[in-house]
Give the backbone structure.
Amino acid sequence: MTDIVSANQSSMTPEQAAHARRGIERRMRRAAALAAAQEEQRRTDELFMRKALDQARRAAALGEVPIGCVIVKDGRIIARACNRRNTDHSALSHAEISAIRKACRRLADWRLTGCTLYVTLEPCPMCAGACVQSRIDRVVIGAASPKSGCGGSLLNLLQNPDFNHRCEVTEGILQEECSSILSSFFQALRNDHSV
């Protein structure tokens, strides 16, 4: 960019050239600040996704599909849950639904504004709907779910412009780890059934 200013300086007054340099310097500082903020957000997202992965490991230990979720408000975890459909004998015992229930109880409010939900697998239609209905600000997804994902893979219920609330979505945080825990679980399941 400085080269552009240098090339154009021949047709500028010294004051105009100085003003142009200051403008470029301001834009460069803003870009550097934005990059630093994005890097800090990525580190924060990875930290909380690791906590969701801990929940996924709890689900695997129960013999459940390893999906974990944490909900964060003001930098603190206010709810955590894992998939428990088989354990609870309930189709509603998805990690996200259980975490949303806990967070609502903790805040004594059905509105989870100011909260971020971290989940190891892209939400299904039910869970995506619960995120929208509970007014969660942001949903951070580890692995995509091409067969049932409603955070952008199959449908995008989280950001549907026809709804009265939309969630900000960040995808692919610790994607390899989140995918790996699911792949390992299903591979072990196939090996057990092939014996």
Observations:
- The first strand starts at residue 68 and ends at 73.
- Residues 14-61 form the longest helix (48 residues).
- The chain has a mean pLDDT of 92.
- Residues 114 and 137 are 6 Å apart (CA to CA).
